[in-house]
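Feature request disguised as a bug: please show the residue count (137) next to DNA-binding transcriptional activator FeaR in the output. Example input:
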Amino acid sequence: MEPNPRIRTYPYMDGTDLVELRTRCLALIDEHYRDPRVDPHWLARELFVSRRQLDRAFTCQVGVAEVLAKRRLKQAVALAAVHPAVPMSEIAKSCGYGTYETFRAQCHRYLRCTPREARFDRKHALRSSHRRLAEAS
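Example output, currently without the count:
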């Protein structure tokens, strides 16, 4: 029986393996962040590693959960600026947030503003949201 090419065993991981794992995880986040089921446990299952092993791949940066949260928030802010007539709850849902409350909490945490402020102060929101997201990293 041929081994599954998606499955890679990691009896121990050196720095190169962790970089590869982080790169594969970031690609999965970019591809699937709109799905509200995507969380660090889902990512670990898709990558055939434990959650702890996935966390190790992100130790020199922010955690995998924060990377996912910031990816969703960045897209939500960009969509809100481009589509001012679309309700923020719909934008949040389209970016993978399970609830509007989670989206609102992450706006406060990472951007230090409300979703409404992020939408209507577009110049400020886009410019400073990228800066604030970078600072939070």
